[in-house]
């Protein structure tokens, strides 16, 4: 019996494949997104971004623009409403990035310097492009490198523990029979969700009403209330349909601008970002430079583990791309050290991007593990099994469950790993060199307090209300299945309302915590409702019966454990060293990720993550112009992503792995699909060509340079012989 069938047999609706409950609305166009919902007297705002990377605004020459057809106002630092940028929000510290139009400072190219509002979007754009802003420009620095003289170790950053250490690292490295000491780099990368960021703000009966594309309306409503010094009850944020988020859709300058404009004009105002503006305003994945030192016995058992990761942050707000966290979970050693370092530059602030930290960190670490396996002449899977920890390598805490070896075992069986010749550069198919590679994956399995309400209606249907966000993951469908099982009814009798801050606080769609957090709250409310209905012997009054839940106490009572999803990635590539072309022919991911609520949407999520990992390995790279501090090719023509022709048939599946401490057994799958894929592809490229690529993406020019170097080295060795 398959994993899916086993889960379905035990739990009913959970574990069985269901199409999205909103699927028909999406494919017919009935589902409306934040940028297309009509309002009477709707005005349109268009942001004007700075063209210098650092300096001050000398003047905003808005007179000629205000005289243009349809223009209603031009907001800038000289006339915009004041906001409180010192409030402490979700991150536990102020976020000055949201303080737009509050001062004349310009901290990076693409900083908002004005908002032009007009009767139509076309008028707003024309006027925005005509607006003259003069600057007092200052020298800037946008060049990231590990040896930057301004590099520092962050202190008291709530996002990550900057450094961990145990044992005598240098002594264990000296005592090791085999040492890997290499640096790996990843470039700046961008989310580029299909739906651009959009917000419509209006005042409705004394309440601020914002229709937005975000990953958590509770979060956005709370932050807007604090930023504008409003009573939280007077702010409502709705986000019914979202066309992708990947970590980028929280609170950004466009929502703040829309609220400012509606406050000034007393009419609804919509602000939609352009694709180019999204490259500046909604975050990105920082480039990284990571040095990894591994010391091992001859058989591959680790004695020393050292992972030091550099990333950049802005001068405005500190963000850490926590690339060194992976080893704190995956591999133990007698001496263990991890460190994060930051470089402040005149660039926008980075942000969470699918599997923040783990995605770039896994490329470096899992590539280094492959190099260690090569030096020790040990199979890469056997090497990982040899270094499997019994408890958290840094924390010492037990794992809630850890089935990474089961993932490797199942993946190796399906992929045909046993038939792999470990020697590189041997397999050839015409002009193509063929190779295979593997890598481990992990991502935290967290849970956050959430509230939910479940109502038994008089018509014997049920309404679930929870402030979840569906960013394309199928949250509505998952909650319907969870509620159906808890109520012991058919999912067709369940209606789900989400994405409205009036529904009460709930976890955002992020960190692979959404489904688990929401399902816990829905299950608690549904269980209570079922008991109340049993006491009433099924008699439901005309007004219905509602049960509510708040999981704060239950979540707080969880025992301290290492809670993670795990996985194993496998890749086969074909490389043409004459043209530099790399083609991924096969990708297989096997995961241990708790109870899979809906196999149909879950598999889609995992395949999407794996596709992105392929794109990360071979294509994605944002380039900054050091002269002006802006991007070169800030669009989907200049920023290359994997397209249909680049993506093979991808397989994703899972092993049985319910979390024993979760009411439904859920862990989380949103992030883990991307983790390890780039390393598996890079390891496969080494196996095909015999050349290691430690810098992403593995572009054709890098393949060609490596091939030329190999030919030169071979010729020199032949002459020497």
Notes on the structure:
The chain is of the alpha+beta class and 721 residues long. The protein has a domain at 3-31 and 448-556: Aldehyde Oxidoreductase, domain 4. Helices cover 28% and strands 24% of the residues. The chain is built from 18 helices and 26 strands. Strands 3-5-1-12-9-10-11 form a 7-stranded mixed β-sheet, with helices on both faces. A 5-stranded mixed β-sheet has the order 7-15-14-13-8, sandwiched between helices. Helix 10 (358-376) packs parallel to helix 17 (677-689), helix 13 (475-487) runs parallel beside helix 14 (514-535) and helix 16 crosses helix 17. The longest helix is centred in the C-terminal third of the chain and has 22 residues, at 514-535. Mean pLDDT is 95; it is low at 1-11.
Write the topology of this structure.
Layout: H1 3-11, H2 23-28, E1 43-49, E2 55-61, H3 63-66, E3 71-75, E4 105-106, E5 112-118, H4 121-130, E6 132-137, E7 163-166, H5 169-175, E8 178-186, E9 198-204, E10 207-212, H6 217-227, E11 235-238, H7 253-265, E12 269-272, H8 275-281, E13 288-296, E14 302-314, H9 327-330, E15 335-345, H10 358-376, H11 380-386, H12 404-415, E16 427-429, E17 432-444, E18 451-456, E19 462-465, H13 475-487, E20 494-497, H14 514-535, E21 545-550, H15 552-556, E22 564-576, E23 581-592, H16 599-618, E24 623-624, E25 631-632, E26 650-654, H17 677-689, H18 700-720
Parallel strand pairs: 1-12, 10-11, 14-15, 19-20, 23-26
Antiparallel strand pairs: 1-5, 2-4, 2-6, 3-5, 7-15, 8-13, 9-10, 9-12, 13-14, 16-17, 17-22, 18-19, 18-21, 22-23, 24-25
